[in-house]
Amino acid sequence: MEFADSKYEQTFMLRLYEFLCDMTDMREAYYKKQFSQSSDPLTYSIGKKYLKVFLLSRETGEPASVWCFVDSKGDIFKPASWSRPAKHARGNLWQNKILMGPYGPPSLK
After folding, report:
1. Which of 9, 22, 35, 39 would give a disulfide with 27, using CB separation of 3.0 to 4.6 Å?
2. With 0-12 CB in 10 A as exposed, 13-18 as middle and 19+ as buried, what is 9?
3. What is the pLDDT tens value at each position of the chain, 109 positions in all?
4. For residue 101, is it within any domain?
5. What are the strands, taking DSSP E only, across 1-109?
């Protein structure tokens, strides 16, 4: 994943961290209310074109499923498979209100 400059990259990574913290808090609240347990933690890996956000299994600590993909502009994509995003962006990191559910980005209607 390439960025235009290092200042943008730092800002992007800070916003990503805030996004992951917000989504983790939202998932924790949902799981505790619905299932009386903690949710699997979110983490990410950086690829050539996309940053992959995925869940780690509580039992094994291994990657369990892809939660979303994020490109260098901040567009958020629903996963189509483990290694590729769906075609259309479902949100952007730079938006004030990102519509995400406990299971990831919403489907297009």
Report:
1. 39
2. middle
3. 777 788 988 999 999 999 899 888 888 899 888 888 788 888 999 999 999 999 988 888 888 899 999 999 999 999 999 999 999 998 899 987 777 777 777 777 6
4. no
5. 42-46, 50-56, 63-71, 75-79, 85-92
Is the residue at 1 inside a domain? no
Q: Is residue 99 part of a domain?
A: no
Total count of domains within the chain:
1
pLDDT digits (tens, 9 = 90+) for 8-36: 889 999 999 998 998 888 888 998 888 88
| 37: enclosing H helix or E strand | none
Compute the chain's Rg from CA coordinates: 14
Phi, psi (deg, nearest 5) at residue 91: 175, -175
Instruction: Classify residue 69: in a domain, yes or no.
Output: yes
Q: Which two tokens stand for residue 79?
A: 């996963």
| Angle at alpha carbon of residue 21, lines to 23 and 4, rounded to 5° | 100
Which domain range does residue 69 map to? 6-92
Total residue length of the chain: 109
